[in-house]
What we know:
This is MucB/RseB N-terminal domain-containing protein. The protein is an alpha+beta fold. The protein is built from five helices and 18 strands.
Amino acid sequence: MMCFPHIRLSLAMLFGCAAVVLATPRTTVAQVEQPPSITPLPGLTPPPVPPRPLVPVPESVSQAVKQAVNQEFGAALASLQINQSTKQRWSNGCLNLARPDELCTQAIVPGYRIGMTDGVQTWFYRTDTTGQILRLEVFDRAWLPVPVAKQLVARVATDNPVPVANLRVTGVKKRVFDGCLGIYRPRQACTKIALQGWQAIVKGQRRTWVYHLNQDASRIEQNRAASGARTTVRTSFDLFGTPTTDLAQSVVFRRTVSGGLAGLVTTYTLTEDGNVTSLTTAPFIRSHPVVVKTLSPQQVKRFKRVLTHRRFPNLNGLSYLTEAALADYPTTSLQSQRGFVQYIDLEKPNLPRSLQRIILVWERLIQPAEAAS
């Protein structure tokens, strides 16, 4: 049918010429709101993964572990509670914790790994399903006597200040100190005595502190150079590898970056003559030390002054790492004649200030040489 606008159209023709609009049902697509993706800003760490929920533990197992902690460490039974628990299948009757020359039954033993805390320290035990067999995880760990631990956290709360309820002792190392409790201060003379004590790591909600104390906690001092790391970093005594024990007397400072998927180990060494040498090794690579930069005597002297002023010896034996170090992310080690410390450079802004300053000065000192190599 043809339609002409100058002809009067009948109603029927009008409808015939009109565009036919088909009524189609309206479909509404539900918009699903996606959770915003969290992209960590440079220098920041993503939020920590929430801890696993506790696995229910039989009362007989719980009571057996509480009794063991009470008898071995003097913690009051009423103060103890489980803060970690997982089901396990131990591969032998010694719960995979055989002592030297100990014979263990070779059979699978179902059981638990339990963390028991008094609110200040945590002890880890392995058990069977009844609590009749249990063993303390010792490895290279130590624990403070309960009264000493309470005195320590009270002192930390006073020094910083933070609520005592927010403090936990997360690491303890037995030490033999001099008269200064092993805390280095420039131009300070210390009596050469063998003072038994501990070096302890105390964790708060945001910061971690390192303290030195004698056996009865009558002397407690903060190691300020090693303290102040944010809790996104795990401050501990656990080191990847061991420091070079035969460091030549001519060595002023050494930085080693190791790990990563390629397995590269890159070392920069500063010696007293001002030479900075570079050496890179890998499973199938072995280079020779190459002098990449020479510092003036004044530059060497200034850097040694930084190590002294920032009290590098007080960082000895400590590590500041995260789980990224376990995932093949490179770990950095710094070593001098009097100290060895490790960290992960993802967390440089969250390290103790003394360590941050030493890293900054060193990187500025060798930056052109590092870029060239």
